Structures are given as structure tokens and as C-alpha cells.
Amino acid sequence: MRFAGTIVRAGRYWAVEVRDLGVYTQGTSKADAYRMAAEALEIVTDTPGFRAEVFPGDGSYFEIGGSPEEPLFALLLRQKRVSSGLSLAEVARRLGLRSRNAYARYEQGKSVPTVTKLTELLSVLDPGHDIVFAASRA
After folding, report:
1. Is 56 helix (H, G, I), strand (E, B) or coil?
2. pLDDT per residue rounded down to tens, the chain (138 residues)
3. CA of 116: how far to CAs of 55, 108, 112, in Å?
4. Which pTM does this prediction carry?
5. Are 79 and 122 in contact (CB under 8 A)?
């Protein structure tokens, strides 16, 4: 799984944004900014052994992914929940779960949702928005 990002020149620096994962950083060159983006993703996933990889694209577009993929699902869900201002308990309630731990396992990377479950989770975390699958452009 890869996430879309943008890289643009901002004065003396190159600014990087991976909005869906909440990753924002910069570098003194394009190569440096890509390296910083990968490092930032590794830091925010906070998972031993996780390695991020950047796939440069055309113009300001690039993609970033990593292995193993479980931490990426966990980070995506956590970012969506936090940006929506929801607690773990509120998400669990909206999903009709008795315990917040059932949902928390996804954010901890202990459980990986199926595509159907991911769609359900994101509809609760980010109502009114849908997942768009697209072929890689990088």
C-alpha cells in the first residue's frame, strides 16, 4: 500500500506533505526531503523493523509506503480519528462495539482490517468521504 504525497520548493527548502498520514517535513534538496519523509514515517509509525520507501513521481507528486504494512493501516486510522476529534470510546460506540479495545487493536496494528472493514471504519472516522483506489503514478 502506498500513500500519495506532494513535494514543492519553498524558498531554500523542499516541503513534503503526506496528508492522509499526517506526515509533514522538509529538506534542503529534493533527495533530502524524500529521505526526511521516509524517516518521519518510520518515526510516527513507532514500530520496530518498519521501513519506509519513497517512490518519486512526476512534478510535485510522489508516493510513500513501507513494510510491513500493518503500521500504515494503524497510522491511517489513528490520524483519521484524531483529526475527527473522536476518542477510542466514541469510535467504538459508533461502530456498535461493547469495548473500545476491539477498535483499538486496529490502531495498534494488532489487527488488520479487511477492505470491507476498512471502509466501515473510515466511514465512521471520516463521514462523507470515501476511499479512492487508483493505480500508482510513481
Report:
1. strand
2. 899 999 999 999 999 999 999 999 999 999 999 999 999 999 999 999 999 999 999 999 999 999 999 999 999 999 999 999 999 999 999 999 988 998 999 999 998 899 899 989 999 998 887 777 777 888
3. 27, 19, 11
4. 0.88
5. no
Q: Which three cell numbers stand for residue 117?
A: 472493514
How would you class 52 by CB atoms within 10 Å of its CB: exposed for 0-12, middle for 13-18, buried for 19 or more? buried
Domains defined for the chain, CATH in brackets: 2-66 (3.30.160.250), 70-125 (1.10.260.40)
Question: Exposure of 12 by Cβ count < 10 A (0-12 exposed, 13-18 middle, 19+ buried)?
Answer: exposed
> Which residue bears the cell 514543492?
8
Residues 6+ apart with CB under 8 A from 7: 14, 15, 16, 17, 30, 33, 34, 37, 60, 62
Burial of 59 (0-12, 13-18, 19+ CB in 10 A): exposed
